[in-house]
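Budget justification aside, the reviewers requested a transparent look at the raw inputs and outputs of the sequence design task funded under Objective 1. We therefore reproduce one unedited record. The lines immediately below are the structure tokens for a 179-residue chain.
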């Protein structure tokens, strides 16, 4: 990376970092949209309150990530980011065991995928801080705070994920027995 005083930020010399950042931004958009959808689907519940905080934090993380990209001279790939947005929307069309309503499986899968994404986000911040060397190159970005916040989000969602999984997999199918 080379500092470009005319632009006021670092310029990426390594193409691999640029590709990685663009891919991760696309994934961040998927998780942001999923968190927003999960929040809407659980509004008015304790889970909905937790998801509101998680959705807000993920949206903030996506914006922080955009700032990091700008500072290192990587432009977002609108096709990749737009495709991720569309893919999340298309993912809503899959079968969930109910024709027209939210199912216990939908809730579990949303939470399962969100927790995977949050685990990935912790790894992302660690990778950028340590392996890509951005912790020293961008000392004003508090990677430790971002990692800790992701850990808290994961811990907040875990009891709900476990309950949702138990509810989804022990539910009695319509017209059937639980035996």
């Amino acid at each position: 990376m080379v500092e470009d005083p005319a632009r006021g930020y670092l310029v990426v010399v390594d193409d691999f970092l640029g590709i990685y950042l663009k891919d991760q931004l696309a994934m961040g958009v998927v998780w942001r949209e999923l968190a927003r959808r999960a929040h809407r689907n659980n509004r008015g519940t304790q889970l909905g309150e937790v998801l509101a905080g998680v959705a807000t934090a993920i949206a903030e993380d996506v914006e922080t990530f955009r700032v990091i990209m700008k500072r290192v001279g990587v432009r977002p790939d609108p096709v990749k980011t737009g495709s991720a947005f569309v893919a999340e929307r298309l993912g809503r069309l899959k079968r969930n065991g109910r024709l027209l309503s939210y199912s216990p499986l939908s809730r579990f899968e949303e939470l399962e995928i969100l927790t995977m994404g949050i685990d990935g986000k912790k790894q992302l911040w660690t990778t950028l801080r340590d392996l890509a060397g951005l912790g020293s190159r961008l000392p004003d970005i508090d990677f430790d705070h971002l990692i800790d916040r992701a850990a808290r989000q994961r811990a907040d969602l875990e009891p709900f994920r476990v309950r949702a999984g138990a509810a989804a997999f022990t539910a009695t199918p319509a017209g059937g027995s639980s035996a």
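Confidence is low (pLDDT under 50) at residues 175-179. The beta strands are 2-4, 9-11. Computational costs for records of this kind are itemized in the attached budget.
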